[in-house]
Amino acid sequence: MAINLKQVKRVFVAGHRGMVGSAIVRQLEKRDDVELVLRSRAQLDLTNQQAVREFFEKESIDQVYLAAAKVGGIHANNTYPADFIYENLMIECNIINTAHLCGVQKLMFLGSSCIYPKLAEQPMSEQALLTGTLEPTNEPYALAKIAGIKLCESYNRQHGRDYRSVMPTNLYGPHDNFHPENSHVIPALLRRFHEAKLRGDTEVIAWGSGTPKREFLHVDDMAAASIHVMELDKAIYDENTEPILSHINVGTGVDCTIRELTETVAKVIGFEGKVTWDTTKPDGAPRKLMNVQRLADLGWGYSYSLEDGLTNAYEWFLGNKETFRG
């Protein structure tokens, strides 16, 4: 009888029902060397230290993907800053510390590009962290994410753990939030143009001038990058095992104007009307682009073009209109 020498790892994906967590699960569940351990928010409150400790002690976890977080747009961050900093800090502290106490050697923390200063040089490199003032509207959330990076870095330094952090650019794709007011730009545009097409509208009003440039990454690419970085032998260490970087940017390294994005969304959906730009609305920062050279040097590159990714996201939207968030 053949003996299977491949070791099966018990992998806990925290936040497996969110956009990024569910994408990681979709990729890991295809593998025969992974046994997924998943808990919904109702089953496990990640802000409860005792509950998290009991869960880890019972389940014998080998690896952790920490994708759980309280997230929201500008309005939510402005309205509930205490909730954002408290809940995210509690989730990170509970999982990272408990993973260490229970002997978990490998953990992946997922952050956000909002960790970088508001006026960081473009494209934003990993070294820009803590070199300037954060964007005020989401500062509490950003500080919690920075704390998560430093938690991982500190457990590596003091306890010899291998806890890694990845910072994604703007993400979109299946399981996104399509709320008409509280969603991010891509799901908002997909829903707006879809509903305009259904109504037979001849015009869609878009905010701003359309000139700001943004970078977008399909969530399946983000999941692939996270797994790639997790499985590298020495993702963030040199030959002397000294940390080079506490975190790694994940993105395409390619941006487009909001006007180009909007035109591509209209093409994907088949909206043939006119797009009118309301220049009385704010544009935001002129450009936000990630420097992803470090990740490229580690052997990873994205697979979804913007149009292909938008097509995939729209197909998911059409197939899940009864249950999508928002």
Describe this structure in words.
Catalyzes the two-step NADP-dependent conversion of GDP-4-dehydro-6-deoxy-D-mannose to GDP-fucose, involving an epimerase and a reductase reaction. This protein has a domain of 222 residues: 3-Layer(aba) Sandwich (Rossmann fold), CATH 3.40.50. By secondary structure, the chain is of the alpha/beta class. The strands form three sheets. Strands 2-1-3-4-5-9 form a six-stranded parallel beta sheet, sandwiched between helices. Strands 6, 8, 10 and 12 form a four-stranded mixed beta sheet that branches. Strands 7-11 form a two-stranded parallel sheet. The protein is globular, with a radius of gyration of 20 Å. Helices cover 39% and strands 16% of the residues.
Low-confidence stretches: none
Spell the H/E element sequence: EHEHEHHEHEEHEEHEEHEEHH
Strand order of the largest sheet: 2-1-3-4-5-9
Rg of Cα set: 20 Å
* Count of helical regions: 10
CATH superfamily caption of one domain: NAD(P)-binding Rossmann-like Domain
Beta-strand residue percentage: 15-25%
The structural class is: alpha/beta
Question: What's the number of extended β-strand segments?
Answer: 12
Broad shape: globular
Largest sheet: 6 strands, parallel
